[in-house]
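Z., the sequence and structure:
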Amino acid sequence: MKSIVYYTLLELHRERVYLFTFLMGFFIALVSLLGSSLSYQVGQMVTLDIGLGVLTLLMVGQAIYFGVTMVGEDLAYKTLYMVLQRVKKRRDYLLGKTIALLLLLFFNLLVLGLVIYFLASYEGGMKIDLYLFSLMGIFFESTIILFASVNLTLYFSRTISLMIAICIYFIGHSLHSALEIIEKKGSFLEVFFLKGVFFVWPDFHLFNLKQYVLYEQFLPENFLSRAFAYGLCYCFFLLCLMVIRFEKKQLD
């Protein structure tokens, strides 16, 4: 497994993925400084709003793209057979790829998180604990969509997996609002159906802590423990599905 992690990271290094991260850090700094200079005494909020928004899009975008391509390309180009001959178990390959992609996401989170923190500190003070919780929420969100993307490539082509993963992300963000509306105005069957979908679909609303960082400055009671327990359970569930499916997948 260690060799798979190493060669996957080496492949990402050859593709100069880290340069895009630094470029996005420069973009966040430029746009944040420009936006804060045009605002009046809310420069810190502008910086956090833009920074966390760009960071989320980058993390989710890379999670979907690499989740679909890193395993999907090996399956499509038949290079997976040669790789599997060098590992003891099939799951070592899959887990090695997954760990490498998680390290990439953590690198993005660390670099851009520090950029946003220094920019926001320059504009004024902020609650560091809420900011760190917000970064953890973004990491959980991107990890879930990464695992979902890898799962999809084990069933569908890369193009179809990419489109489905994007739909999963946007629907996962809109389900909570849709459920609140349906509960007030919808019928019993509509509420029952939507709750059934809500039960199996990832609830990304739980990990969106930006409003608490920007406006409310506090978290509701038990919100954090519920969100992170949900994130850990959902990640473990998707990981188990991924390993089981890959172990049983016919590669000929």
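The chain has one domain: 2-248. Residues 43-76 form the longest helix (34 residues).

Let me know what you think.
H.
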